[in-house]
């Protein structure tokens, strides 16, 4: 079955610097890759997503890149701010089973 | 607020008791999902509804778990004879038919003592 690995598990960056979180997936049939932000005690919030026919997508300070050949996708956050501190999850989706398979999460800490 | 709504937000129950959670999806969303999340982990898929039909069930969903979506709107997740290992956050999400963007509720945190 599909497996998603996410690295690093914890990332600490200085406010204003960039943060990069990386994920790999195992099933080449996956065709949709969302990123979620989860704050303590809350449900995951969709922040950006990318489909398999696109290599890069950007939304203000957030960007996602996808390398289908290598089965890698990454989240890039620029000019980090204290409110970016949260746990970030990547996920992979296949139409065949309607399931999102999730990475284990990255705790992002923004140091003032 | 037109987001996904879950009730209750927190539930503490004694081992062996039954509990039921409710999820109200975004109104125009036909698909509804239940996930379970334990501390430090990503959500794990439990089950999925397309309108009122339950189309997928994870092996995680033991016989003690049952989910319904009787009129294709809200859904309930019942856990019978709760065990301490059931303690987790139970998340509900919804999406449009043919859409992949899933929107999550705030979750119900279950503690079994």
How would you summarize this macromolecular structure in one to three sentences?
With 112 residues, chain A is mainly β. Chain A has no helices and 11 strands.
Question: Any overview of this molecule?
Answer:
The complex is a heterodimer of chains A (about 110) and B (about 110). With about 110 residues, chain A is mostly beta strands. Chain A has no helices and eleven strands. In chain A, the strands form two sheets. In chain A, strands 2, 4, 5, 9, 10 and 11 form a six-stranded mixed beta sheet that branches. Chain A has a five-stranded antiparallel beta sheet with strand order 1-3-8-7-6, with no helix packed on it. The radius of gyration of chain A is 13 Å and the shape is globular. The N and C termini of chain A lie far apart (about 40 Å). The model of chain A has no long low-confidence stretch (mean pLDDT about 95). Chain B has about 110 residues and is mostly beta strands. Chain B is about 0% helix and about 50% strand. Chain B has strands at about 5, 10-15, 20-25, 30-35, 45-50, 55, 65-70, 75-80, 90-95, 105, 110. In chain B, strands 2, 4, 5, 6, 9, 10 and 11 form a seven-stranded mixed beta sheet that branches. Chain B has a four-stranded antiparallel beta sheet with strand order 1-3-8-7, with no helix packed on it. Chain B is globular, with a radius of gyration of 13 Å. The mean pLDDT of chain B is about 90. Classes of the chains: A mainly beta (about 110), B mainly beta (about 110). The interface of A and B includes residues 36 and 43 of A.
